[in-house]
Amino acid sequence: MPPSNAPHLHTPEAVAQAHGVAPDAGLHADEALRRSATHGANELATGPDRPWWHLLADQFKDFMVLVLLGAAAIAGLVGEVTDTLVILVIVVLNAVIGFVQAWRADQAMAALRQLAAAHATVLRGGAVQVVPASALVPGDIVLLEAGNQIPADLRLIEIAQLQVDESALTGESITVAKQTQALAAEDVGALGDCTNMAFKGTTATHGRARGVVVATGMRTELGKVATLLDTDERSTPLQLRLAAFGKRLALAVLGICAVIFVVGILRGEAPLLMALTAISLAVAAIPEALPAVVTVLLALGARRMVAANALVRRLPSVETLGSVTTICSDKTGTLTQNRMHAELLLAHGQTWVPGDPLPGPVHAEALRAAALCNDATAGPGEGSKPGAAQAGAHWQGDPTETALVLAAHAGGLEKTALEAACPRVQEQPFDSDRKRMTTFHQVAHGAHPGLVAYTKGAPESVLPRCTRQWTPDGPAPLNADAVLASASRLATQGLRVLALARRDHTRLPDTNDIDAVESQLHLLGLIALIDPPRAEAQAAVRDCISAGITPVMITGDHPATARAIAHRLGIVQDPDAPVLTGADLAGMDDAALRARVEQVRVYARVDPAQKIRIVEALQAQGHFVAMTGDGVNDAPALKRADIGVAMGQGGTDVAREAASLVLLDDNFASIVAAVREGRRIYDNIRKFVRYAMTGNSGEIWTIFLAPLLLLPIPLQPIHILWVNLVTDGLPGLALAAEPAEPGIMQRPPRPPQESLFAHGMWQHILGVGLLIGGLCLAVQAWALHTGREHWQTMVFTVLTLAQMVHVMAIRSEQQPLWRIGLLSNRPLLGAVVLTFGLQMATIYVPALNPVFKTEPLTLAELGVCVAAALVVGVAVELEKAWRKRRREEG
Ligand code: ATP
User: Fold this and answer.
1) Angstrom distances, CA of residue 526 to CA of 414, 500, 871
2) Could you read off the pLDDT of 394-424 as tens digits, one per residue?
3) Among residues 105, 132, 147, which one ends one of the domains?
4) Average pLDDT, whole number, for the chain?
5) Would you name the residues annotated as active-site residues?
6) What is the 432 CA–ligand 1 centroid distance (Å)?
7) Exposure class string for 211-229: b at 16+ Cβ within 10 A, else e
8) Which residue has the higher pLDDT, 507 or 828?
9) 683 lines ligand 1 (CB under 6 A)
10) Which one, out of 457, 814, 855, 864, has a CA that is 20 to 30 A from the CA of 159?
11) Is ligand 1 within 6 A of the CB of residue 331?
C-alpha cells in the first residue's frame, strides 16, 4: 500500500515524501492554497444552515397566528372583508418582525461560532504560523503541544512524551502514549493500535509533537464515524422558565377571554364581534414571543460582549454572569501583563543584572541552561499568536521562556548558536504539576562526546533535587535552605523566581523514569523575572469589590510572589494577608477548607487538580463562582465552576472546550466587563418583560372592566391587534439597546434562583396595567358623557400613547427619566417617535380611517389623550421614588 493510504505502516519520511512536503519546512503557502482548493475545508459536515425562508415559515407556525388566521377566515366568510385584510396584514407584519428578530439572533450566534472556531499551529514556508484549523490540507506539518485538540489526522514524525486522550474517538478513557515508528500490518487491529498516528478530535494531554496531515475533514477517522453534528442551541434556564410561565398565563388569559365573550353575548353584543374581540385579546395578551425575545436579547448581548473581549460559548451564561459572587483568577497573564523580563540572576553568591558584564563562569552556565532548557522559537514575528512574544521582537513562545532567551542574549549567549553547538536530543516537557522541565543536549567535551541535562523550574520543585552547587572546578557544597530563603526574599518583591540546574550523563537515561532522571542535580542559580500587574486589573478589582464580587487569586507561582502581586492589585488589603498553598490544601479535609475558603483570597503553588476543591468549597458556602484556567488539567475545574473562563490567546483547546466564556485578551478586566454586561442584559430582559406584560395587562383590564362599569366595548379587535403589534414590536426590541444603569456595579449580585419577577414587578404589571386600563375607561366615560363621537378613537389613542410613555419611564428601574436623559437610548426614542407618527397616521390619514375604524380627533381631544398617557409616566416615577426611599430606609 502506498504511504499516503496507510501512513501508519510507513516511516515518517516516506509519508512526508508521499505528501510532497519537507518535514522541517512545511508546505509553501501557494501549495497549501492549491491543495485547499482540491481537498476542501478541514471541517466535518454539519446540518445544512437554516435557510431564511425556513425561519420565515417558522413565524407562521405559532398557535396564536393560526387562531388569528382562523379569525380572518371567519370575518371574510361573514362579509367583513376589510377585517380579513387587516388581520392578514397584521399577521404578516408580525411575522416579519419575528423573522427579523430570529435572523439577527441567528447571525449573532453564527458570528460567535466563527470566533470560537479552532486554530492549529503549522509550519508553512519554513515559518511557524497559527491558522484556522479549517484551513489545514494534507501534507501540512502541524505542531502539537499539551492541551491542543488534534485538528486533522496526523502521522506523527517527531514526538516528546506525547500522550493523547482518544476517548472522543475510541471510547477508551485511558490516555495513549504515542511513538513515531512504522507499524506492521498484523499489529494493527483497531484505531487504538495506531500509536504513530494522532486523530482529529482527540486531544494531546501531555508532551509535544510534530506530525504530517494525512487526512482532513470528512476523510478523517472522526469524519467517517461522525453523523451530522448536532448544532442546535439548547434553551437557557430563563427561556425554559418563561415558556413554562407563558403556558400558565395563556390558560388564565384564555379564561378571561371566555368570560369577556360570554358577558358580551349576555349584554346582547353581536357574537362575531365578541368572538373577534376575545380572539384579538387572547392574541395580544398571551406573551408567546417572550422566550424568542429573550434569545434575541441574549444573542445580541453576547455579540456586544465580544467587543469587550469576552466570547460567550454557551448562551445561558450571558444571563447567569450577573449572579457571579466570586471570581477565581489565575495570576500570570490574567492579572499580570505576561510580558516578562529578567531582573537579576543570582549564582554562586553573586548577583548579575542584565546590562552588566557577567561576573563569572557560573552565571554563563546558568544562562546557557536558561536558553537551552527552553522552547521559545525564533519566529517571523508575524502570523504568531498575538501577545505571545512582544518582548523579543522575533522570539515566540511562553513569555517566561522568551524572557530567559533575552536574558541570555544580554549576557552574550545566543540561543540559536547554543542549540547548533549542543542539539537537544531528549526532553521532559514542563507541566504545572511538576513545575519544572528538563532537556538533554549533546556536548563535545574535548574528545569525549557526552550529554548534559538542564533543568529549570520553581525553586521548591528543583532545589530538593539538587545535591551540589555547580562550579567550573567541580561540584561544591550546597546550602539549599539558604538558596530557598533567597528565592523567598525575591518573591516577596513580586518577582517570579526560577531555579536553574544541570547534570552530566554519559548516555541517554531512560526518560520514562522521570523521577530518577530529575535527581542528583547541580544547582546553577536563581533567575528572577518581573511580570508587572496589568494596568486595568487594579480598577477591575476595585469594580469587583464594589459590585459585591470577591476576587480571588489562584496561581502556580510562589506564595510570596502571589501575595505581593495580590496586594499591589488590591485583592488583599493587608500585606501579610493569609495565603493557602497547595501543600496546605493537601493537608486539609473538605470541611476544614469550607471553613476557611471565605477568608482566603490568595492561593499559591496550587495544582490544577486542587482548583476543583476550591470551587466546590466556595459553592458549598453558597457562592456563584467564575473560575479561570488555561491548561489541560484546569478543564474539570472549569466545568465544575458556574462560569468557566478560558484564555483565548494563551489557553489550550481543552480548556476552551470546557469553558463557557473565553477571554480573547486573557485579561481579568474582561471578566469584570462581561459580568457588567451580563447584569445589563438581564436588566434589559426584565425591562422588556415589564413593558410587554404591563401593556398586555392594560389591554385586558380595559376590555374586562368596561362591561362591569356598564360601558360599551371600548376597543375594536383591530385596535387591540395594532397596539400589540406596534407597541410590543418596535420599542420593546429597542430596549435591548438600553445602556447599563449607573449603579450597576455598585449593587450586590443577583441570587441565581431569584425570580425574574422579583422586586415588585408583579405588582407593577398588575397595578400600572390597571392604571392604564382605568385611564382608558375614564377617557371613554368622559367622552361618552360629554357626547363626543370619537370616544373609541380616543381610547385607542390613550392606550397606545400610555404604552409609549410607560416604555420611556421604565428605562431605568431606579433612576428617574430626567436623570438618565431622553437621548441615552436613541433607538428607543426613534421607535417611540415612529410609533407616535404611525398612531397619528391611523387617526388623521383619511384613507386609513375606515381600515382602523377611527375618526380624526380634535386638538382638544388629542390633548386629553396625551395628558391621560402622561399620568402613567408620573405614576411610574412616583413608584420608583417610593421604592428608592424604601431601599434607603432598609
Ligand atoms: P498562574 O497559575 O497564575 O498562571 P504560573 O504561570 O506561575 O501562574 P504555572 O504555569 O502552573 O503557573 O507554573 C507554576 C510554576 O512553574 C511557576 O511559578 C514557575 O516557577 C514554574 N514554571 C512556569 N513556567 C515554566 C517553564 N516554562 N519552565 C520551567 N518552569 C516553569
Assistant:
1) 20, 6, 75
2) 788 889 999 999 999 999 999 999 999 999 9
3) 105
4) 88
5) 330
6) 6
7) bbbbbbbebbbbbeebeee
8) 828
9) no
10) 457
11) yes
